What does this fold into?
Amino acid sequence: MISVLVAGIFTLAPPTNVVVSDTPDDGGGAITIEWQLSADDAQLQRYEIYRSEDGLKYDKVGFIGRGRNAYEDETQDRTPYIYKVAAIMDTMRALSEPSTPVMSSAQWLDRNKINIIITVLLLGGMILYFIYRARRGRELYVRKISGLQAIDDAIGRATEMGKPILYCPGIGYIEDIATIASLSILGEVAKKCGQYDTKLINPHFDPIVYTVAREIVKEAYTDVGRPDAYDPDSVYFVTDSQFAYAAAVDGIMLRERPATNFLVGWFRAESLILAETGASTGAIQIAGTDQVSQLPFFVTACDYTLIGEELYAASAYISREPLLLGAIKGEDYGKIIIVGILVAASILGLLTKVPILQLFR
Amino acid sequence: MKTTDLLMKIDRRIIYLILLVVVTLPLIFPSVQSVRVMPPVEKLFNAIDTIPADKSLIIDFDYDPQTLPELEPMAIAILRHAFERRIKVLALSLYVQPLGLATNALNQVTAEYNSKASTRADSIIYGRDYVFLGWQPPPLVPILGMGESIINVYKTDYYGNQTDTLPLMQRIKNYSNVGLLVSLSSGDPPRWWIEYAQNRFGLHVGAGITAVSASEFYPYLQTGQFSGLMVGMKGAAEYEEIVSSQMGIVGRRKASEALPSLTYAHLVMIAFIVVGNIGFFIQRRHK
Amino acid sequence: MLVFVFGILGIIPFIIPHPAVQNVDEYLRNNLLKILAAFALILGLGSLLRVHIDKMKRKGQNWQYSWVLILTFVVSAIIGLFGGVNGTGILPTRIGSFPFDIWTIYLNVEVPLGATMFALLSFFMASAAYRAFRARSTEATLLLAAAFVVMLGVLPFGNRISPHLPSFAQWIMDVPNVAGQRGILFGVALGMLATALKIILGIERSWLGGGGE
It folds into this structure.
């Protein structure tokens, strides 16, 4: 009796102003439903969303917590839907007015990505411009990168000592830019190993990277006229388990005692294990990675470290090919633009905190 | 051997031996090191402590054997806190590997309480005081589904009981009956709880994470999306400390026992660095 | 040419959400890449086996370890292929109450071994820090001082030295450390863009092997 009285006195306010639209910038199959919160929102348990194709029979398609006024429903394209939103409190339910019919569809452009496209076109355009300029024979300056300058000496050291060179490309996959940069350096190192008849040991973590590296090393030996010196067992797959790979490479370092270790590529926690074991054998170590978290370990334990983009510049630096050097120049100008924007934004940010701009009002 | 050589070229085996001794001795002869409780842990403690009597705590166990040393002490400390306050607990996991570890933690703390209890009312009873829901793949299914109905997502619990027959599940229906969720994880789950459960249903979320992930999750604490945060073994030790000092809970404090090892290992490293630099400066002076 | 086509095919789905484009991208990623990876895995395993079998035949240095590798490889492959993940395959993987299915082997062999290797990090960190952290220059001294502050600040001990030490350590992690990281990340991001462009446009070909024109 009391509950009937209470129910009679208290009517739940429904959500109002239900607006439905095709979810923008997507591949279709989604409709966004928005509404104004119920006046009793603070007491609600949730909102329920109902959908109909004919305006007569409605099915519940979802729910969302109180205080929230938007929901995205999965739909079939080119089918009109009508929506109602219900405010729920215990057993009470208050339905909104039905929405207008709407159909979902796929878009051909994601407008949220326009700023990224513009930035990529700008920076990419600048890089291509400098590559074009480099084609016209202009000499381009690149600062000294100690790690790359040391490659020749490091390989020479191994040759004189009659010991092998260990080249470890890390635990990245072929789609990692650091791995691709590492493979470029591997090609140059393999050429020198072929010229000087130095043994190369190249264990791999990823089977795809292994197959690419195998061809690179083979071609490198052929390029310098020493296809006979190429040992197919010098490039091999070990395991795709992180620490098992680290254990395997450590074992190689301790048994084979290479004179030079190259630790160039994408690394994670095993980086210090590899670098420190190599240091304990007395080998000269050249490392390079774009993983910021691993750089301190390499800097500490290795003789030379290529930091971040120095690794990507390696191929251009070693080959001195004008087109590649032009790309580095383009990158540098891109960085200048970014730094300029950051400085300007920081100054503006400071000005808005400190009311200097008030003086100009 | 010259003094500078002695200082600058200590055999690495000696370094390893000293480190081994300072790390293992405190573990063999455990002692509890008191620690200052930092604000993020204090916030989490208060968030759990102020859960209303009609609401529950959900603990998401998402650690594996490798991260167990850091995260299990957090789980045990939180369970002790919850059981002492008679806060009802729902336990679950988003992956299969932590299930066994979650069972261990729940059974350990339950046994601790029941060994001291004299009546049924004092005891921690499964189904009345806590329920272990288990695992329901993929992870997003329980995160989203529990917003409407927990028993619809978990029709049976980890032990095979029908969840709608358990006394606790008669009153804990969905997130509106949950005061706080704490995710103990070494990966992305705390972020998922924020993105899906908090954004859609307003669920309050806290987290216990490994030290390595700290920099990723601090922004969520700064914005208030996390109600509190425990980071690494020190975070676990801080929670053990606050639970012990504020509630007088007695029990083995694994993180606090391991903290001396951590402290002495750091001090040993600092000592070796200082020794090496002394030798370096002496050598430089002679030159 | 292939690199150019597939490079462009990788960029386009990023800006065009339409299913006509997304389905092609999904097929390439989920099907083609997986097939390539499977074949590469076969090549990789073949290489591993060949290297060790050769070593065993000619009794090269440490050839006994090659026996261990081949044996464990064959045994775990058979158990994994025919025993099922939790012992649900055609091969029985239990002797009494002692299971040896692939999941048990993984949990009791692989996981502890991985944890052991991970634990070595602390020892290596100590020896690396001792060897390398010398105040050779002003920058190195500054780095050393920051390292001491952070190491002491995160310990309970640090609070006894000064109650401000933990906050100062946190500030070092939050401000100068993050600033330095962000600088490197900007460079890395630009470098990735440039390298990817060079590869897609065929300007950079050294990774193909044989380099040249």
Q: What stands out?
A: Residues 1-60 of chain C form one domain. The longest strand of chain C covers residues 94-95. The mean pLDDT of chain C is 84. The CA atoms of residues 153 and 167 of chain C lie 8 Å apart.
